[in-house]
Amino acid sequence: MQSRPTLEDVARHAGVSRALVSIVMRDAPGASEETRARVRRAADDIGYRPDPRARRLRQLRTKLLGVTFAAGQEFHAELIDGVYAAADDFGYEVVLSGVTPHHDERRAVRALVDDRCEAVVLIGPDLPTAELEALAATTPVVVVARKVRGVDAVRSDDTAGAAMAVDHLYGLGHRRITYLDGGRAPGAAERRRGYTRAMRAAGLHAEVRPGGLTEREGATAAAALLAADQPLPSAVFAFNDRCALGVLDVLVRARIAVPDQVSVMGFDDSPLASLAHIDLSTIRQEIPQLAHAAVSRLVSRLDNDDGDAQPTDIVVPPTLVARGTTAVPA
């Protein structure tokens, strides 16, 4: 079935910008009569018609953006702060709905829709792709920190970030680098892929062990390394900073010197990572950029007649932050 003509199609046919087409279709000031006539002729030529449903929605504005997040996840909390800042720039307010053991993700999303949020930011959702696509068909949605087919997404380049961590450790001289995996968490598959590819490219054996998202899971993984019937790796790369902190705690208690005996690397660059007594080497996710990109995408759909635009996957490069937990192996 042929797709419905969009503002981009009109702009291309008329030889003007998409923003100028939007001005003409909204009868807003900023375009000459000659330009208005040319744009309207182009719209008639390709069969473009404004969506009356979108027009009605714009006339019944709440200016509310909903955000779902996992309670207790520091990375999510930082993203929320970024969303607040970006939403304020665009003149929107933010409504939060946390995901907890007693308030699951479906209830969190439903609460935002019931509160008449015009659009929703889902941070690291676990909902199946089919449910996310169904939600996006009725409400503008941006998924943050996860790639989802058929839905707008904003995420860090987790594959490149993991490869960056391996390259950093390899450059220091480490040859046995163990990765503590994130299981089925958003971004885990990409980070695992980046680690294994970088290890293979360096001619090294990839050693992936169960890790997790929390300090407790990191501590469990570190304890398993200590109990294993083989020498400790010279470096441990954890799925995220919280997991890395659990590893550090166990190693310190076992009197294993970090980084002299074992280097430790995280992912996220959470506020705790930069504390002087932790000083964790990590991969920074550029939170202000992620948050701004997510809010900007939603505002484009709500305010700029982008409702029919194809979903986009916006990828933000991460940054290596080398601190005191990684060094040349002894």
TrEMBL record:
Q: Which SMART domains match?
A: HTH_LACI
| Protein's recorded name | LacI family DNA-binding transcriptional regulator
Pfam families from the UniProt entry: LacI (PF00356), Peripla_BP_3 (PF13377)
Q: Kindly give the CDD domains that the UniProt entry links to this protein.
A: HTH_LacI, PBP1_LacI_sugar_binding-like
Q: Which UniProt keywords apply?
A: DNA-binding, Transcription, Transcription regulation
Show the GO MF annotations.
Answer: DNA-binding transcription factor activity; transcription cis-regulatory region binding
The record ties this protein, via Gene3D superfamilies, to: 3.40.50.2300, lambda repressor-like DNA-binding domains
Which parts of the sequence belong to the HTH lacI-type domain? 5-59
